[in-house]
Automatic annotation (TrEMBL):
It catalyses: 7,8-dihydroneopterin = 6-hydroxymethyl-7,8-dihydropterin + glycolaldehyde. SMART domains: FolB. Pfam families: FolB. This is 7,8-dihydroneopterin aldolase. Catalyzes the conversion of 7,8-dihydroneopterin to 6-hydroxymethyl-7,8-dihydropterin. Residues 5-118 form the Dihydroneopterin aldolase/epimerase domain. It is an enzyme of class 4 (lyase). One of its GO terms (cellular component) is cytoplasm. Its EC number is 4.1.2.25.
Length: 126
């Protein structure tokens, strides 16, 4: 059984992009997260220690996203996914959506971004 913890609309100012002004001035990004985990124990015990702390997830995602300037959203989203899987052993998989609503595109659009899903690799059987 897999349950889901979701956190949507995390707004972060960062300096990701290919163009020079993106890395100098930066812009607003919005991150949505879905964490796939088993919540059966915490749903019975009502103990924070039996689940994943939303606050700690946000801190981890924010740090992973802001600490390095990436050219591609794909890489920035991958860094967030990697850090969440490394930091939270209870999380079996994570879906990271990164919105870049002010991307330098010569068009009128509502939103642009990437969605990636990463999961733990099962242990290899020898």
């Amino acid at each position: 059984m897999t349950d889901t913890i979701f956190i949507t609309g995390i707004v972060i100012h960062a300096r990701h992009g290919v163009m020079e002004h993106e890395t100098e001035v930066g812009q607003r990004f919005v991150i949505d997260l879905e964490l796939y985990t088993d919540l059966s124990e915490s749903s019975r015990t009502d103990r924070l220690s039996d689940t994943v702390s939303y606050s700690n997830v946000v801190a981890t995602a924010t740090s992973a996203f802001k600490n390095t300037n990436y050219k591609l959203l794909e890489r920035a989203a991958g860094a967030v996914a990697d850090d969440i899987l490394t930091t939270f052993p209870r999380v079996r998989a994570v879906k990271v959506t990164v919105h870049k609503p002010h991307a330098p595109i010569a068009a009128i659009f509502d939103d642009v971004g990437v969605v990636l899903t990463r999961s733990r690799h099962p242990p290899s059987q020898s």
